[in-house]
Amino acid sequence: MGHLTGVVAEASAMKPVRVASLVSMYVQPAYRRGQIGGRLIGEFRAWAKEMGAHLAEVTAYSSNTEAIRFYERNGFTSKAVTLEVTL
Questions:
Q1: pLDDT by residue (tens digit) across 26-76?
Q2: How many angstroms separate the CA atoms of 84 and 74, rounded?
Q3: Helix (H) or strand (E) holding 47
Q4: Which of 22, 23, 28, 38 has the most CB atoms around it within 10 Å of its CB?
Q5: How crowded is residue 59: how many other Cβ atoms within 10 Å of its Cβ?
Q6: What's 31's DSSP letter?
Q7: Counting Cβ atoms within 10 Å, is residue 36 exposed (0-12), middle (13-18) or buried (19+)?
Q8: Torsion angle (degrees, nearest 10) of CA 74, 82, 66, 46
Q9: Do the Cβ atoms of 2 and 26 come closer than 8 Å?
């Protein structure tokens, strides 16, 4: 059906609290729109709290508007923008 992978990083000078990062998430197309993704996010957030994280973060490509909307519906908000240039 789907999977989610996350990690928790210790506090650092850049982020003075423990942070849980959602590294990878996938739900098979046949199971999308069935609340599987929302349940995975809920379990991730509960796990992150158990691990002592104070924040959770996820990264999505700016062109992946569907993923961004999904994460926003599940409580995530945009905090940074990464700009790049081809060399």
A1: 999 999 888 999 999 999 999 999 999 999 999 999 999 999 999 999 999
A2: 27
A3: helix 36-50
A4: 22
A5: 11
A6: G
A7: middle
A8: -20
A9: yes
- Point out which residues pair with 21 in neighbouring strands: 7, 57
DSSP letter at 45 equals H
d(CA 51, CA 19): 10
Residue whose tokens read 């996938």: 26
CA distance 62 to 3: 22
Give the length of the chain: 87
**Cβ neighbour number for residue 47 with a 10 Å cutoff:** 15
Question: Which token pair is 61?
Answer: 């490509």
Q: What is the pTM of this model?
A: 0.87
